[in-house]
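My current task is to audit a protein record that another person submitted. Alongside the sequence sits a line of tokens, each denoting a local backbone shape. Please read both lines and tell me whether the tokens look consistent with the sequence. Do not assume that whoever made the record got everything right. Thanks in advance; the entry in question is below.
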Amino acid sequence: MAVVYMAQQERPLRRRVALKIIKLGMDTEQVIARFEAERQALALMEHPNIAKVFDAGTTDTGRPYFVMELVKGMSVTEFCDKSLLNTQERLTLFVQVCQAVQHAHQKGIIHRDIKPSNVMVTLHSDKPVVKVIDFGIAKATNQRLTEKTVFTRYAQMIGTPEYMSPEQAQFSELDIDTRTDIYSLGVLLYELLTGVTPFDAEALRAAGYLEIQRIIREEEPQKPSTRLSTLGKALTELAKQRRVSAEALPKLIRGDLDWIVMKALEKARIHRYETANELRLDIERHLKSEPVLAGAPSVSYILQKFIRRHHVGVLAGSFVALALVVGLAVATYGHLQARGDRDLAVEQQQFAGGPRERSYGPWRGPAGQDTRTGSATGRRGRAGPGQGGGAIGRTAPHRGQAGSPDIQGGE
């Protein structure tokens, strides 16, 4: 859409500047509208981490341009790798990015295309300074950036797929708010920590539009520490660029930084950081070894996410589990009912003194004594020699004449 040249400004100051001008043949109404919107967005902001606008105008041939601060540097990821910055130093630079984005949001500007090539690093007095550039597809939240109408065609993708939030990947841009930039910041942080984006850039670009939408909106990326453990030999080179061993790098990321990144990358924006400032503060808490707000997700929250991802399987499993519970309850009730009926029948037979009582009654010792209680039984029985039967009380043994049969004892 536009091209940037390094130029020499003569008035009112002599200085090197960047001149951004629409390419020949690209000066359509829509391109000019977006160009003017970017120019106005930059003019609204005044922050040390955002490139400044010095002047604007139109060439003799009618092509619009604007003059801005010349940023001599490289992308933030390239700078970090070439400078061999460790994890803490990378996080310190990322804090500057958050500060720039927070300022833009306070001015009512949503960047919508935060990525390494739009986050440059330059040196001021040998100190690295971040400069956020290219507000070409920025959106205003509370004002119009141009009098011209900026029209987005249906199903037109605005932004860079691998850094794009789920809501930005939808067909409509009407519901975009500042939290779309929070998601992009999460992707940038993920890349600074792991050297890769949450979703493979080549795979995304090879997919069709609908598949890109599905991946961004539905698939859950791996945690940074988990992703590092899957990189194999590439992990060794990444660790060297961060001045740490391959074994130690995942451990540095695990915990706080995993939680911070994954909170920024939430599919539902309501669960992300509300502002870039909140994200910055959590990074600073980590650097100070203070508890971070992101924290470990609760069991109920993890369960909710699992159900949302696998709702069909969970629903089917719930029906199966319900059927098993009902079946088990019916079987248990039937078993208890049958056992109760059997016990009742046995008790009734014992009370009536039927054969089953004698079969299942207590074992009786000598003289009709109940061995369980040690008391004399109330049943009459035939007494052997020297033994007497018992009724309520014991009676003295009675012997008949020789040869006569024993007589019944007890009255």
